[in-house]
TrEMBL record:
Keywords for the protein's UniProt record, in alphabetical order: Hydrolase, Magnesium, Manganese, Metal-binding
InterPro entries listed in its UniProt record: CoAse, NUDIX_hydrolase-like_dom_sf, NUDIX_hydrolase_dom
Obligatory cofactor(s): Mn(2+); Mg(2+)
Taxonomy of the source species: Bacteria, Pseudomonadati, Pseudomonadota, Alphaproteobacteria, Hyphomicrobiales
The organism's place on the tree of life at top rank: Bacteria
Protein name: CoA pyrophosphatase
Stretches assigned to the Nudix hydrolase domain: 52-183
Gene3D superfamilies linked: Nucleoside Triphosphate Pyrophosphohydrolase (3.90.79.10)
Length: 214
């Protein structure tokens, strides 16, 4: 159990987490984060030319009685980008979407069958800028524990949960590197059993931790 999640002697991890998010000062929500934080010499959009592409992801937190958890997906191996990787439900913000929240809800419904009436968004994090040219807005939401999830086989190979306490424990936030264009590129990784959480997803988790507990 992560002690930082039990501030003020409270036992309910989800309530404490939500309260902290809701009380975040504006400067914690307005400062862009991204791949470039660990790679300042590469710039925020290292592998992309042109204006950034707007996207949104849902950080779906289930307030389970014993242990609050976060829903994650395993992308199918045939996708054109991030195939076989672990991700939050999400995608590009379409013209028809009324902002990041609606885009995140739509994508979650399309990808994992998460009904909108079972989701209560309560905060948006600062945009996360990716080396592939996306400006991703993470939307944090509470999800009904009884919500039914059905993976869309065209996009999602599996849907699973990870304890919130695991993701918010900085001891689980490892840094790793790979060589790209002759230089070491650094990123976060958070191995969880047989699941390998890394890259943008791990970076967003780290940004969430830093905003709430940093």
């Amino acid at each position: 159990m992560v002690q930082v999640l039990k501030a003020d002697g409270r036992d309910n991890l989800f309530d404490d987490f939500k309260d902290r998010v809701m009380r975040l000062p504006e400067d914690r929500l307005s400062h862009d984060t991204g791949d470039h934080v660990l790679n300042p010499d590469l710039g925020p959009y290292a592998r992309w030319e042109g204006p950034p592409r707007d996207a949104a992801v849902l950080i779906p937190v289930i307030p389970r009685a014993f242990e609050p958890s976060v829903i994650l997906t395993l992308r199918t191996p045939h996708l054109s980008s991030h195939a076989g990787q672990i991700a939050f439900p999400g995608g590009k913000i379409d013209r028809e979407d009324d902002g990041a929240v609606q885009a995140a809800l739509r994508e979650a419904e399309e990808e994992i069958g998460l009904a909108r009436h079972a989701v209560t968004p309560f905060a948006e994090l600062a945009p996360y800028l990716t080396g592939s040219g996306y400006r991703v807005i993470p939307v944090i939401a509470e999800v009904d524990p009884d919500a039914k999830l059905v993976a869309n086989p065209a996009e999602v190979a599996d849907v699973f949960e990870v304890p919130l306490s695991f993701l918010m424990d900085p001891a689980n936030h490892k840094t790793q590197s790979r060589v790209w264009e002759g230089k070491a590129r650094y990123f976060y990784e958070m191995p969880f059993g047989e699941r390998y959480i890394w890259g943008v997803t791990a970076g967003i988790v780290r940004s969430l931790y830093e905003a709430v507990y940093g």
